[in-house]
Amino acid sequence: MNSILITGCNRGLGLGLVKALVKLPKPPQHLFATCRNKDQAKELQDLAAEHPCIHIIEIDLNNFEAYDDLVKQIDDTTQGCGLNVLFNNAAIAYNEPNLDAVKADQMMNTFKTNSVVPVMLTIACLPLIKKASEANNSLEMGLERAAIINMSSSLGSISTNTTGGFFTYRCSKAALNAATKSFSIELLPDKILCVALHPGWVRTEMGGPNAPMEINCTTEEIVNTVMKFNKSHHGGFYQHDGVNLPW
Protein backbone atom coordinates (compact mmCIF):
# COMPACT_ATOMS: atom_id res chain seq x y z
CA MET A 1 0.00 0.00 0.00
CA ASN A 2 1.13 3.55 -0.62
CA SER A 3 -0.30 5.16 2.52
CA ILE A 4 -1.98 4.32 5.82
CA LEU A 5 -3.31 6.42 8.69
CA ILE A 6 -3.40 4.80 12.14
CA THR A 7 -4.90 6.54 15.17
CA GLY A 8 -3.69 6.21 18.75
CA CYS A 9 -0.03 5.37 18.10
CA ASN A 10 1.65 6.71 21.22
CA ARG A 11 1.47 3.27 22.88
CA GLY A 12 -0.27 -0.10 22.87
CA LEU A 13 -1.75 -1.60 19.74
CA GLY A 14 -1.31 1.56 17.67
CA LEU A 15 2.41 1.69 18.35
CA GLY A 16 2.61 -2.06 17.79
CA LEU A 17 0.95 -1.70 14.38
CA VAL A 18 3.47 0.94 13.37
CA LYS A 19 6.34 -1.37 14.39
CA ALA A 20 4.83 -4.30 12.49
CA LEU A 21 4.26 -2.28 9.32
CA VAL A 22 7.78 -0.89 9.08
CA LYS A 23 9.11 -4.48 9.39
CA LEU A 24 7.32 -5.53 6.21
CA PRO A 25 9.53 -6.35 3.19
CA LYS A 26 7.75 -3.48 1.48
CA PRO A 27 6.46 -1.06 4.15
CA PRO A 28 3.98 1.70 3.29
CA GLN A 29 5.52 4.67 1.55
CA HIS A 30 3.66 6.93 3.96
CA LEU A 31 2.65 5.81 7.46
CA PHE A 32 0.69 8.53 9.26
CA ALA A 33 0.61 7.92 13.03
CA THR A 34 -1.52 10.09 15.29
CA CYS A 35 -0.95 10.88 18.94
CA ARG A 36 -2.36 13.51 21.28
CA ASN A 37 0.99 14.63 22.68
CA LYS A 38 4.11 14.19 20.57
CA ASP A 39 6.39 14.92 23.53
CA GLN A 40 4.92 11.94 25.40
CA ALA A 41 5.38 9.58 22.45
CA LYS A 42 9.15 9.09 22.65
CA GLU A 43 9.17 5.53 21.30
CA LEU A 44 7.09 6.64 18.33
CA GLN A 45 9.46 9.55 17.74
CA ASP A 46 12.45 7.19 17.85
CA LEU A 47 10.78 4.97 15.25
CA ALA A 48 10.08 7.97 13.02
CA ALA A 49 13.73 9.03 13.25
CA GLU A 50 14.74 5.55 12.08
CA HIS A 51 12.04 5.17 9.42
CA PRO A 52 11.40 8.25 7.23
CA CYS A 53 8.09 6.76 6.01
CA ILE A 54 6.55 7.52 9.44
CA HIS A 55 4.80 10.87 9.72
CA ILE A 56 3.67 11.74 13.26
CA ILE A 57 0.51 13.84 13.41
CA GLU A 58 -0.22 15.46 16.76
CA ILE A 59 -3.99 15.76 17.12
CA ASP A 60 -6.78 15.49 19.67
CA LEU A 61 -9.25 13.36 17.72
CA ASN A 62 -12.09 14.64 19.90
CA ASN A 63 -11.52 18.03 18.29
CA PHE A 64 -13.40 17.57 15.04
CA GLU A 65 -12.39 21.03 13.82
CA ALA A 66 -8.78 19.79 13.56
CA TYR A 67 -9.68 17.18 10.94
CA ASP A 68 -9.35 19.56 8.00
CA ASP A 69 -5.69 20.20 8.85
CA LEU A 70 -5.05 16.46 9.24
CA VAL A 71 -6.57 15.73 5.83
CA LYS A 72 -4.55 18.54 4.24
CA GLN A 73 -1.31 17.18 5.72
CA ILE A 74 -2.03 13.75 4.29
CA ASP A 75 -3.06 15.12 0.90
CA ASP A 76 0.05 17.32 0.67
CA THR A 77 2.37 14.48 1.69
CA THR A 78 0.88 11.91 -0.68
CA GLN A 79 0.88 14.52 -3.46
CA GLY A 80 -2.69 13.92 -4.49
CA CYS A 81 -2.53 10.10 -4.49
CA GLY A 82 -5.08 9.84 -1.70
CA LEU A 83 -5.10 7.58 1.36
CA ASN A 84 -5.13 3.81 0.88
CA VAL A 85 -5.98 2.74 4.44
CA LEU A 86 -7.61 4.33 7.46
CA PHE A 87 -7.09 2.24 10.60
CA ASN A 88 -9.33 3.57 13.39
CA ASN A 89 -7.52 2.19 16.42
CA ALA A 90 -7.74 4.81 19.20
CA ALA A 91 -10.11 3.88 22.04
CA ILE A 92 -10.76 4.25 25.77
CA ALA A 93 -12.42 2.02 28.35
CA TYR A 94 -13.75 2.28 31.90
CA ASN A 95 -13.77 -0.69 34.24
CA GLU A 96 -17.27 -0.95 35.68
CA PRO A 97 -17.71 -3.86 38.12
CA ASN A 98 -21.50 -3.64 37.84
CA LEU A 99 -24.31 -1.63 36.27
CA ASP A 100 -24.55 0.65 39.31
CA ALA A 101 -21.04 1.90 38.55
CA VAL A 102 -21.96 3.23 35.09
CA LYS A 103 -21.68 7.03 34.92
CA ALA A 104 -23.30 9.21 32.27
CA ASP A 105 -20.19 11.31 31.65
CA GLN A 106 -18.02 8.21 31.25
CA MET A 107 -20.51 6.71 28.86
CA MET A 108 -20.58 9.89 26.77
CA ASN A 109 -16.75 10.05 26.70
CA THR A 110 -16.53 6.42 25.65
CA PHE A 111 -19.07 6.80 22.87
CA LYS A 112 -17.37 9.95 21.58
CA THR A 113 -13.91 8.35 21.41
CA ASN A 114 -14.85 4.81 20.41
CA SER A 115 -17.84 5.40 18.15
CA VAL A 116 -18.24 9.04 17.06
CA VAL A 117 -14.56 9.75 16.34
CA PRO A 118 -14.09 6.78 13.97
CA VAL A 119 -17.24 7.76 12.06
CA MET A 120 -16.36 11.44 11.79
CA LEU A 121 -12.71 10.76 10.92
CA THR A 122 -13.81 8.31 8.23
CA ILE A 123 -16.13 10.93 6.76
CA ALA A 124 -13.34 13.52 6.80
CA CYS A 125 -10.85 11.16 5.13
CA LEU A 126 -13.33 9.69 2.65
CA PRO A 127 -12.39 12.00 -0.27
CA LEU A 128 -8.77 10.84 0.09
CA ILE A 129 -9.77 7.18 0.39
CA LYS A 130 -12.01 7.42 -2.68
CA LYS A 131 -9.17 9.11 -4.57
CA ALA A 132 -6.87 6.18 -3.73
CA SER A 133 -9.51 3.68 -4.80
CA GLU A 134 -10.03 5.43 -8.12
CA ALA A 135 -6.28 5.63 -8.73
CA ASN A 136 -6.01 1.87 -8.20
CA ASN A 137 -9.12 0.84 -10.12
CA SER A 138 -7.29 -2.09 -11.71
CA LEU A 139 -6.90 -3.73 -8.28
CA GLU A 140 -9.47 -5.83 -6.44
CA MET A 141 -10.80 -4.79 -3.02
CA GLY A 142 -8.12 -4.84 -0.38
CA LEU A 143 -5.56 -2.75 1.47
CA GLU A 144 -3.50 -2.11 -1.66
CA ARG A 145 -6.52 -0.38 -3.18
CA ALA A 146 -8.51 1.29 -0.38
CA ALA A 147 -9.75 0.15 3.03
CA ILE A 148 -11.25 1.24 6.33
CA ILE A 149 -10.32 -0.99 9.26
CA ASN A 150 -12.11 -0.31 12.55
CA MET A 151 -10.53 -1.78 15.67
CA SER A 152 -13.50 -3.26 17.46
CA SER A 153 -13.75 -5.92 20.17
CA SER A 154 -15.48 -9.22 20.76
CA LEU A 155 -17.13 -7.38 23.66
CA GLY A 156 -19.07 -5.48 20.99
CA SER A 157 -20.69 -8.71 19.81
CA ILE A 158 -24.30 -8.77 21.00
CA SER A 159 -24.96 -12.41 20.22
CA THR A 160 -21.96 -13.69 22.22
CA ASN A 161 -22.59 -11.54 25.30
CA THR A 162 -23.32 -14.04 28.07
CA THR A 163 -21.63 -12.30 31.02
CA GLY A 164 -22.66 -8.65 30.86
CA GLY A 165 -20.26 -6.13 32.37
CA PHE A 166 -18.07 -3.60 30.56
CA PHE A 167 -21.30 -1.77 29.81
CA THR A 168 -20.06 1.42 28.17
CA TYR A 169 -17.26 -0.29 26.27
CA ARG A 170 -19.59 -3.01 24.95
CA CYS A 171 -22.13 -0.43 23.80
CA SER A 172 -19.51 1.77 22.11
CA LYS A 173 -18.00 -1.14 20.18
CA ALA A 174 -21.43 -2.47 19.17
CA ALA A 175 -22.12 1.01 17.78
CA LEU A 176 -18.80 0.96 15.92
CA ASN A 177 -19.69 -2.43 14.45
CA ALA A 178 -23.01 -1.03 13.22
CA ALA A 179 -21.20 1.90 11.63
CA THR A 180 -18.71 -0.43 9.95
CA LYS A 181 -21.52 -2.47 8.44
CA SER A 182 -23.27 0.65 7.16
CA PHE A 183 -20.01 1.97 5.68
CA SER A 184 -19.56 -1.33 3.86
CA ILE A 185 -22.97 -1.01 2.20
CA GLU A 186 -22.59 2.63 1.21
CA LEU A 187 -19.00 2.31 -0.01
CA LEU A 188 -19.35 -0.95 -1.94
CA PRO A 189 -19.73 0.90 -5.30
CA ASP A 190 -16.41 2.63 -4.56
CA LYS A 191 -14.76 -0.75 -3.85
CA ILE A 192 -13.50 0.46 -0.47
CA LEU A 193 -13.02 -2.50 1.85
CA CYS A 194 -14.69 -2.00 5.26
CA VAL A 195 -13.99 -4.39 8.13
CA ALA A 196 -14.37 -4.53 11.92
CA LEU A 197 -11.45 -6.22 13.68
CA HIS A 198 -11.09 -7.77 17.14
CA PRO A 199 -7.43 -7.72 18.25
CA GLY A 200 -7.84 -10.23 21.05
CA TRP A 201 -7.12 -9.72 24.75
CA VAL A 202 -3.72 -8.05 24.67
CA ARG A 203 -1.38 -6.89 27.45
CA THR A 204 -1.81 -3.17 26.92
CA GLU A 205 -2.67 -0.41 29.37
CA MET A 206 -6.31 -1.05 28.50
CA GLY A 207 -6.07 -4.85 28.42
CA GLY A 208 -4.21 -5.08 31.71
CA PRO A 209 -1.27 -7.24 32.89
CA ASN A 210 -3.28 -10.50 32.98
CA ALA A 211 -4.08 -10.50 29.26
CA PRO A 212 -2.64 -13.62 27.56
CA MET A 213 -1.50 -11.94 24.32
CA GLU A 214 1.66 -9.88 23.77
CA ILE A 215 1.56 -6.64 21.76
CA ASN A 216 4.25 -7.20 19.14
CA CYS A 217 3.25 -10.77 18.21
CA THR A 218 -0.41 -9.77 18.08
CA THR A 219 0.09 -6.69 15.91
CA GLU A 220 2.31 -8.62 13.51
CA GLU A 221 -0.47 -11.19 13.19
CA ILE A 222 -3.04 -8.42 12.67
CA VAL A 223 -0.97 -6.92 9.85
CA ASN A 224 -0.57 -10.31 8.18
CA THR A 225 -4.32 -10.93 8.51
CA VAL A 226 -5.56 -7.61 7.15
CA MET A 227 -3.11 -7.71 4.25
CA LYS A 228 -4.98 -10.81 3.06
CA PHE A 229 -8.45 -9.27 3.30
CA ASN A 230 -10.36 -9.06 0.03
CA LYS A 231 -13.91 -8.64 -1.27
CA SER A 232 -15.07 -11.75 0.59
CA HIS A 233 -14.25 -10.03 3.90
CA HIS A 234 -16.07 -6.79 3.07
CA GLY A 235 -18.60 -5.79 5.72
CA GLY A 236 -17.43 -8.50 8.11
CA PHE A 237 -16.30 -8.78 11.72
CA TYR A 238 -13.06 -10.72 12.24
CA GLN A 239 -10.56 -11.43 14.96
CA HIS A 240 -6.78 -10.99 14.76
CA ASP A 241 -6.21 -14.34 13.04
CA GLY A 242 -8.96 -13.88 10.45
CA VAL A 243 -11.64 -15.99 12.13
CA ASN A 244 -15.11 -14.61 11.46
CA LEU A 245 -17.00 -13.34 14.52
CA PRO A 246 -20.78 -13.05 15.04
CA TRP A 247 -22.31 -9.62 15.40
UniProtKB/TrEMBL annotation:
It comes from the Eukaryota. Signal peptide: none annotated. Keywords: NADP, Oxidoreductase. GO terms for cellular component: cytoplasm. CDD domains: carb_red_sniffer_like_SDR_c. The keyword Oxidoreductase applies. Pfam families: adh_short (PF00106). GO terms for molecular function: carbonyl reductase (NADPH) activity. InterPro entries: Fungal_SecMetab_SDRs, NAD(P)-bd_dom_sf, SDR_fam. This is C-factor. It comes from Stomoxys calcitrans (Stable fly). The gene is 106080854.
